[in-house]
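Researcher: Next entry in the queue.
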Amino acid sequence: MKSLSTEILVIGGGAAGLSAAAEAAAAGAKVLVAESDLHLGGQLVKQTHKFFGSKDEYAGTRGFKIADILLSEIDSCKENVEIHTNTTITGFYPEDGIFTAMRGEEKFFHISAKKTIVATGAQERLIPFPNNDLPGVYGAGAVQTLMNVYGVVPGKRVLMVGAGNIGLIVSYQLMQAGVEVAAVVEAAPRVGGYWVHAAKIRRMGVPILLRHSIKKAVGDQVITGAYITALNDRFEPVGEESYMDCDVICIAVGLSPTTEILSQAGCGMMYVPQLCGLVARRDRTMRTSNPDFFTAGDASGIEEASAAMVEGRIAGLSAASSLGYPTEHGKLDEYWGRLQALRSGEAGARICQGLECVLVNRWEDVSNG
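Model: Structure for this entry, 369 residues:
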């Protein structure tokens, strides 16, 4: 069986993974990037909107353009970077330190690495309701992939479930593509996404129904409509349900970190609601309780792509430094300053609360990882 070896394995070629690879390779480390998708860039390549934040994280630039910038940066040190797309890391075996990997559905091989950065992103959450297995029920990520990667609209009239940033942005992108958005229903009493996104789609005539959710989907072979209902403060249905014509139901109710490899590596894990799930404990260098594993991006907690890129920088810098490669003095503090600036808003306060649970000052002072 074929075996590959590298100094730093980066699992995931999205915003965090590409940033980590660029940083580590620039320091001189040999890096192998394994990406399960056919293309590098992760969620960035689906994001047609302009980023907020700071100029250091490309504010004012569209997401897919940011992916191009990161790929150009990697190309500038390509002698240190090996890219494997369509390659899934299927497991880690700590007894011999070997990763198993599969390219496509046929080529199976091993990878060994001195250090590993887990930037595996997140998985979409779904909610149960009758007929949610009918064709026409999508996750928001699938809708973005269809439209923004393959140029295919999913239908003619969409009911959006969830008013976080993803639900709001995808609603706007659907309308840009000529698809009608019947309504956005949100179980919470307030919009979870940025006000500017909500205001934009409201101006375009889309109602955002707070304390509402989908009751059931309607259709025989495909979606033809949906019943929605109001909710009380215990999220129980109240009042009469109402019918809405639609041929697509788009679910945008949040993400969960993808952390199986970290668990297999024996990293100390913790469920943190503010970070949206099970994540690894880590120090300021993004190193986990396993000294050979680092984490970054949505795998370390659900946050904006801008923060994921900075976390990737930190992980790449730290992994290279741990192998003895010289890194610029003060760069770690600079990156943390950029993270703190990104987290200074209302949404960042929740992230900071979650980080207080998982950040470790000194591993020597922590028992059992």
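Model: The chain has a mean pLDDT of 94.
Researcher: Noted, moving on.
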